[in-house]
C-alpha cells in the first residue's frame, strides 16, 4: 500500500493565525482548571456510566470555550461533547455538520473523563477548527505534563512552542501502539489485534484518552494508534497535530483521510501499512 500525502487546502492566513492564538489561550486556561479540580472524589450517579459521564468541569470549560469563540469568531458554529448529541452514523454526522459555514469548531473539554475523575494523569482538553478538508488548527492540552501541543495546517506542530517533526521510523519491533475501548467495551477483533501486535513484538496500551493516544504518535512516543469508535471532538485536535508532525492518517479501508469518521489509524509513515494489516486481519477474522 502506497500512501501519498494530500496537498493541504489553503485558508485565510490571518484567520488561521488568530484561531491558532485563541485556541492556544483556551487550552492554557483549560489546563489550569483540570489540574485544580481533577481527582476530587466525584462519582457518577447510579444511572450514569463512569465511562460516559458529563462532569461539572466539562460543562464549565465547554461553556467558556463557546463564549470565547462566539465573541472572537461570530458565525462559525461550535460543536462539543457536553452540549451536542453525538451522531450515531456517518450520514448523521455530516448532516449535523452541514450548513453554510465554511468552518466549524469542535471541542472536547475533558477527554479522558474517567481518568480525570480518578485523578489519573491521562486526560486532556482538545479543540480544533475544521473546514471541509479536515482540521485547520488543533490544540491538545496535556495538563499533567504542562504541555500545550498545537498545530496549524501547513505550519507544523509545536510542543510549548518548540517545533515537533517525526523522524524516520520503518520498524515496529519494540514499539508501542495505542488503542481504546469503545463505549461498550472491546471493539470487534481487538483481542486478535493485540495478539498480532504481540507477535511482532509490539506493545499495546490503552490510555483512556483518544486525543492523547494520537498525540503520542505525533510526538514519536508510539509508532501508531488505532481507534475503532469515537466522535469528531475526541480526535480532531490531535489529528491536526499528527498530520503536521508528519504522521500518516488512514481510514478503516487503508485510504488516506485527514478526518476518518468510522475507524482510524495514525502511524509513522514507514509502519502504517504493517499496522493496518494487523488491524484489517484482526477484524476480518473475528
From TrEMBL:
Might you name a Gene Ontology BP term for this protein? signal transduction
PROSITE patterns tied to this protein: IMP_2
| Known EC number | 3.1.3.25
Q: Which co-factor is required? A: Mg(2+)
- Positions annotated to bind Mg(2+): 81, 108, 111, 234
Identify one Pfam family in the record.
Answer: Inositol_P
Asked whether the UniProt record includes Magnesium among its keywords, one would answer yes
Query: Which GO terms of the molecular function aspect are on file?
Result: inositol monophosphate 1-phosphatase activity; metal ion binding
The EC class name is hydrolase
- Reaction(s) catalysed by this chain's protein: a myo-inositol phosphate + H2O = myo-inositol + phosphate
On whether Magnesium is a keyword of this UniProt record, the answer is: yes
Instruction: Return the protein name.
Output: inositol-phosphate phosphatase
